[in-house]
Amino acid sequence: MTSDELVTIAESVLARAKSGEQIEVVTAHSTDTEVRAYEGEVESFSSADTYGVGIRVVRDGRQGFASAGTLDREVLAEVLADARDNLRFASVDPFVALAEPDGVAPVELALFDQRLVDFATESKIDLVLELERRVLAADPRIVGVESVEFADSVDTTVVLSTTGIRAVSRTSGCSAAVYNLAGDGDDVATGFGFSLGRHPGELDLDVVVADATRRATQMLGAQRAPSQRLTVVFDPWVSAQFLGIVADAFSGTEVFRGRSFLADRVGETVASPKFTLAEDPTDQRWMGASAVDDEGMASRRVELFDGGVVRGFVHDAYSARALGAASTGSAVRSGFRSTPSAGARSVVPTPGHLDDAALIASVGNGLWVSDVQGLHSGVNPVSGDFSTGIEGRLIRGGELAEPVREVTIASTLQRMLAEIVEVGDTLVALPMNAAGVTLVIGDVTLSGS
Amino acid sequence: MTDTGPLIDDDVIAKVLEAASGRGAEFAEVFAEDRRSSSAVLDDAKVEELTSGRDRGAGIRVVVGNSTGFAHTSDLSEAGLLATAEIAAAAARGGGGALAPRELRRVDAARPNAIEVLPGDVDKARKVELLGRADAAARAAGSSISQVTARYSDGRRRILVANTDGTLATDDQVRTVFSIVSVASGDTGLQTGREAVGHTVGFELFDRYDVEELARRSAERAITKLLARPAPSGQMTVVIGSGGGGVMFHEACGHGLEADLVAKGASVFRDRIGEQVASPLVTLVDDGTMGGEWGCFAVDDEGRPAQRNTLISEGVLVDYMWDGLRARREGRPSSGNGRRQSYQHLPMVRMTNTYLLGGESTPEEIIADTADGVYIAHLGGGQVNTATGDFVFGMTEAYLIESGRITEPLREGNLIGNGPEVLLNIDAVGNDFAMGPPGTCGKDGQGVPVGDGVPTLRVHGLTIGGTAA
């Protein structure tokens, strides 16, 4: 479906607005394919076209919302009626209102590439079969794969409102990814590798194979390590997940609702002076880039930490009004089925000057963390408690040493931010709301044998 | 969209299966779904919004040899389904002659429980009123309660599954859930307390549970944690409270007993049927028939009636869990564990309600008999690497055990262990079995509702991921 068709459908809903009523319509269409290989054959080939609509109605300080996984005309009328009916039961809230254009023009980003659409089905199949062959042949210790996958999607989203919002975005993305198994006698270890792009020409299978092989084989022979306090080095894959959690504390919604440990701390030094972090969805190198936010406001750069000092928060229309600020174009929603809240889409740390080898050497003795397990169950972004299972390697004499598994590391988000010792020199694009970078963090408790 | 009537007429199903299997399939299936949901959220003492959602569509699966083709559509018209069947058949890349689908036979599966009050028939004002009462009760529990979020959700999911083996099955699943998170604020910062109840029932859920009581418990949990000390670090004896959550078993062995992971060599429990894999005190069951529980249903998402499957009996591994595809390759029946998030997803092996049967000790005996350790009243989520068996789970309400007595509250954290080792190290199982709160199990990007339960139990060999020495 073209973006013009999505606009026409959204306009047909707006045309039904009654006086005194604000309406926002999100219409979306995505086309996805996913191909998996197993033992030299196509294990599965899935193909999908997904349509949806979400309608938000605001009237007299109340808001109601409804959604449907279709764009059928008769259903649109029902969804609008549902949203209006839902509104009747919401509390009056003086800060409820739709976003309004503020004159900031969206940056031009090249997030869609026709070459993805033109990539033939047979080529996708050839790609996954080749990837499986190469992963299995990369090292004699690689004994199998759990999954080998090529996935692509083209997403088109339109946000239109009676308050003058009119945003159309179209993005393409694809990935090649593998989860592999390494074995040595009874010992088993797992690894993964992936590559991302806006079109298949950007995928680098060499990187996928090398990363997966290194991750799996380096964990063979892993043991528990003794409990101790030490300095940890986060792999960019781990850092990005950590930064994504830190970004939650900058959400204007969470600040307003008293669930952020950074509330009331603007202008104060909270993190290490070596740490600078911005929300920047206008930089198309990162996977979270987008020209507009999920309320259709132009994306913009927002400074979060500058040399460890808290500079400000990210806002959607609601949190901006509630806190007497301006929207920073930071509305996020999980697709057309939900209402927006304020959140970061693409946080980017400022890189430092040392590469990984130099960082590891600078630590002397510590722990390299290559993967985490259970961040969702062991981190509380409200209290700041941080505890996670990890895999990685000890650092001894400034070099990577024996692999470690079945241990946890723990601290608090507050202390970890203050204890950032160094930031690596290379930023990495990852499928998350943060760019990855190697981070060195001091005074973390390793819990093991 | 109507609430009643078949999702697809029988004559259309036959045509669609014929089209799907026309290019040399061994198996073809159409899965149709109509889902309605509504939710209401109260945050910051205001009913933020009511939302409602509707989704309707079908996924068509075609199996040729070891390959599966899959396509889905939100268009349930005959033309829409036939076009989707063609795409799925082409994706499966079949060759050769057409398969003659068997005549459809309706699967007669008992509903695990009757739904008394359909949430769709309940006035929205009553749903909202629950939230207001919960908010007031939580805030009244203590002056340190600074924020409350309460959420009500219900969903009705009607499904139809038909396949070329002759299966024609339908189910009508209704789930209702209520959750509340209280934030307490003090000199030590912010702490949270959560309570949730969810069952495969209608609005009668609130005849069984008092939202004000749940709200008070969530508030008290947050307030208690303001005084909590950092959790210890290192290996300790752990006592898990009754109903606190069977998440430990879900992660320690549940996922590792899923036949799809076993077949790929990605499970530490591969080739261990008949072996002693756990303490003789451990009998573990996965039971999709458990009336009213969060993970129950009449038929699974492949049209197979729900079953009660004993996975581990007195410590001996009895069987894995199976979906249709894996069972078919092994020439055995599915165990009723083929589930999917929605019509937009392929089914795979998933748990339902997974629980440990009760033992003989009283909980008081177990605690009194524990010199030093940690008592976990409520578990959070978890995660496992099935290939190595290493798993983690969170503790959201925990206390120290000192000299056989529960003493100081502890801050949150994860625990880590190795499934095969931990299962052998269970040395006490209580007589106070209870199911835990509703869970959403994630696997390969798909979430499905699951239940779990445990009696009080004691285990050695878990590592507590705290910061204290």
Explain what this protein looks like in three dimensions.
- The complex is a heterodimer of chains A (449) and B (469).
- By secondary structure, chain A is of the alpha+beta class.
- Chain A folds into two domains: 3-218, 2-Layer Sandwich (PmbA/TldD fold), CATH 3.30.2290; 222-449, no CATH class.
- Chain A has helices spanning 3-14, 73-87, 114-117, 121-137, 205-218, 236-248, 252-256, 317-322, 356-363, 375-378, 413-418, and strands spanning 22-38, 41-59, 62-68, 142-161, 166-184, 187-197, 228-234, 277-279, 302-306, 309-310, 331-332, 341-342, 347-349, 366-373, 385-396, 399-412, 420-423, 439-447.
- In chain A, strands 3-2-1-4-5-6 form a six-stranded antiparallel beta sheet. In chain A, strands 7-14-15-16-18 form a five-stranded mixed β-barrel. A four-stranded antiparallel beta sheet of chain A has the order 10-9-8-13, with helices on one face.
- In chain A, a hairpin with a 2-residue loop joins β15 (385-396) and β16 (399-412).
- The longest helix of chain A has 17 residues, at 121-137.
- Chain A is globular and about 70 Å long.
- The termini of chain A are far apart.
- Chain B has 469 residues and is an alpha+beta fold.
- Chain B has two domains: 119-158 and 171-226, Double Stranded RNA Binding Domain, CATH 3.30.160.150; 233-465, no CATH class.
- Chain B is 20% helix and 41% strand.
- Chain B has helices spanning 10-21, 78-92, 124-140, 205-208, 211-226, 247-254, 259-263, 324-330, 363-368, 419-424, and strands at 27-43, 46-64, 67-73, 105-106, 145-163, 167-186, 189-199, 233-240, 284-287, 308-313, 316-317, 338-339, 348-349, 353-356, 372-384, 390-402, 405-410, 413-418, 426-429, 434-435, 439-443, 446-454, 457-465.
- In chain B, the strands form four sheets. In chain B, strands 1, 2, 3, 4, 5, 6 and 7 form a seven-stranded mixed beta sheet that branches.
- In chain B, a hairpin with a 3-residue loop joins β5 and β6 (167-186).
- In chain B, α1 packs parallel to α2 and α3 runs parallel beside α5 (211-226).
- The termini of chain B are far apart.
- The mean pLDDT of chain B is 94.
- The chains are: A alpha+beta (449), B alpha+beta (469).
- Chains A and B meet through β2, β3, α2, β4 and β6 of A and β2, β3, α2, α3 and β5 of B.
- β3 (62-68) of chain A pairs parallel with β2 of chain B, so a sheet runs across the interface.
